[in-house]
């Protein structure tokens, strides 16, 4: 029983322990402003990682999320900077992310390109388009409050970014755990051929999951641009490894060996707690990268210990 509890919740308990350590060692850590800052930073990472999780649920991996988010941010920023109605700019950013996700889905299911390769290709295209549109120069300005309020505003005293994270996280959890469509997504990832023989349109499920991953990247982009009042190529790239780490770390808790929304969100929060705590303690910046790499390795090892295989080896079906 104890072993089962540790396998299911051990990583989560370690995250709680980390939170407690920083709470004791830094007098600033538990202040309301700092906790709100951590949660707002978690919003960007969490929404991006949710998209990555949805793709991985169907045994596909989306390595384009960060570059797609950067492209969507550039498109959104260019339109707002040029005086376009903010709601049109927001719709354009979401559309760019969704279309890139759909392109990934078509490449994987119609052209039969493995998702590792297809999403790398889309990432390269998105990166090139970002630099083509900006010529390497960021869009910066005093943008309308109707746009910046999307990320900077509050509702009932709670920052909008936290509401966005809670809403998207809850919707994704409901989709995967409590809908027939979610059951089909999970079945596709767990046993592609068996699901197909059972009548599930597995290729459609993979296209949907990759499209949703792109949509999450687009929303992350819009919120980033709104929060920073700027848009630049590669602006979302810093979130890429953290998104992967959040998903992998999330697979070592709650549902060991499986991508799951609660695990991803808790892991994203834990990673932001770690980064924030290290800064408050005065640690050198490079320690975040060192610890991040260690977390990725350990999270894969923990999942492999419980399932017999590393999560990517188990979930990804590279051969078509």
From TrEMBL:
It comes from Falsiroseomonas bella. InterPro entries: ABC_transp_permease (IPR001851). The lineage of its organism: Bacteria, Pseudomonadati, Pseudomonadota, Alphaproteobacteria, Acetobacterales. GO terms for cellular component: plasma membrane. It is found in: Cell membrane. It is a multi-pass membrane protein. Its main location: membrane. The chain crosses the membrane at residues 12-30, 36-57, 64-81, 87-111, 118-141, 161-178, 208-228, 240-257, 264-284, 290-312. The keyword Membrane applies. This is ABC transporter permease. GO terms for molecular function: transmembrane transporter activity. It comes from the Bacteria. Keywords: Cell inner membrane, Cell membrane, Membrane, Transmembrane, Transmembrane helix, Transport.
């Amino acid at each position: 029983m104890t072993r089962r509890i540790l396998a299911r919740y051990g990583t989560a308990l370690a995250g709680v322990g980390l939170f407690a350590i920083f709470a004791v060692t830094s007098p600033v850590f538990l202040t309301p402003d700092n906790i709100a800052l951590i949660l707002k930073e978690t919003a960007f990472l969490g929404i991006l990682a949710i998209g990555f999780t949805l793709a991985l649920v169907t045994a596909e991996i989306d390595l384009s999320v960060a570059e797609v988010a950067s492209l969507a941010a550039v498109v959104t920023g260019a339109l707002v900077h040029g005086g376009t109605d903010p709601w049109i700019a927001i719709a354009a950013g979401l559309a760019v992310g969704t279309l890139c996700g759909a392109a990934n889905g078509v490449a994987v299911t119609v052209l039969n390109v493995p998702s590792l390769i297809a999403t790398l290709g889309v990432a390269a295209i998105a990166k090139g388009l970002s630099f083509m549109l900006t010529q390497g120069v960021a869009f910066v300005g005093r943008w309308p409050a109707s746009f910046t309020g999307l990320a900077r505003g509050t509702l009932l005293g709670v920052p909008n970014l936290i509401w966005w994270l809670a809403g998207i996280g809850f919707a994704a959890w409901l989709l995967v755990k409590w809908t027939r469509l979610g059951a089909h997504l999970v079945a596709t990832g767990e046993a592609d051929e068996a699901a197909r023989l059972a009548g599930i349109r597995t290729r459609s499920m993979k296209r949907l999951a990759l499209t949703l991953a792109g949509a999450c990247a687009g929303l992350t982009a819009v919120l980033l641009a709104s929060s920073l009042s700027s848009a630049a190529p590669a602006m979302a790239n810093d979130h890429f490894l953290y998104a992967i780490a959040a998903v992998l770390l999330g697979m070592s808790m709650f549902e060991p060996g499986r991508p799951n929304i609660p695990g991803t969100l808790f892991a994203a929060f834990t990673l932001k707690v770690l980064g924030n705590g290290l800064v408050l303690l005065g640690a050198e910046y490079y320690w975040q990268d060192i610890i991040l790499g260690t977390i990725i390795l350990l999270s894969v090892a923990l999942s492999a210990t419980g399932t017999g295989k590393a999560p990517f080896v188990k979930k990804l079906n590279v051969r078509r």
